[in-house]
Amino acid sequence: MQTRAAAPSTWVAGFRYALILRNPPTGDARTALADANIALSIAAGAPLDDIDPATGDNLSRQAYARQRDSWRTFIRDFGLDQYTRPGYEGAREYWANVRPAYIHDWPILPG
């Protein structure tokens, strides 16, 4: 089986997410985390208008398309089960809340 190495920014984002799950930020830590996310979004080439100042999330059409396509590939290759469905539903809900105009082409699940 051939695997591809994740891009450094992907690895950093995944590691940061794991740390957040272990130690949820509060107060000033949330601000510092948002600032770090903003810096990562800028470094990734996100337009400033598409960066959420409260969280630092990249809300660009390209970020949406990457996540949508990632879910399409995952569903095609592995399907969804009781463990992965909440992540799928959470991602869809997130984009429906922050960019409702984009969500029309989100993958639809059977049943």
How are the SSEs ordered, and which strands pair?
Layout: H1 8-22, H2 28-43, H3 61-78, H4 85-98
Task: Provide an overview of this structure.
Helix content is 57%, strand content 0%. The protein is mainly α and 111 residues long. It folds into two domains: 7-58, no CATH class; 60-111, no CATH class. The longest helix has 18 residues, at 61-78. The chain is globular.
Portion in strands: under 5%
State the order of secondary-structure elements, H for helix, E for strand: HHHH
Number of domains: 2
Which parts are unreliable, with pLDDT below 50 for 5 consecutive residues or more?
1-6
Give the end-to-end Cα distance, rounded to a whole number of Å.
32 Å
Please state the CA-atom Rg, rounded to the nearest Å.
15 Å
Number of strands: 0
Shape: globular
Number of helices: 4
Give the proportion of residues in helices.
Answer: 55-70%
State the assembly state of the protein chains: single chain
Mind summarizing the main beta sheet? none
Primary descriptors:
111 residues; mainly alpha; 2 domains; 4 helices; globular; disordered N terminus
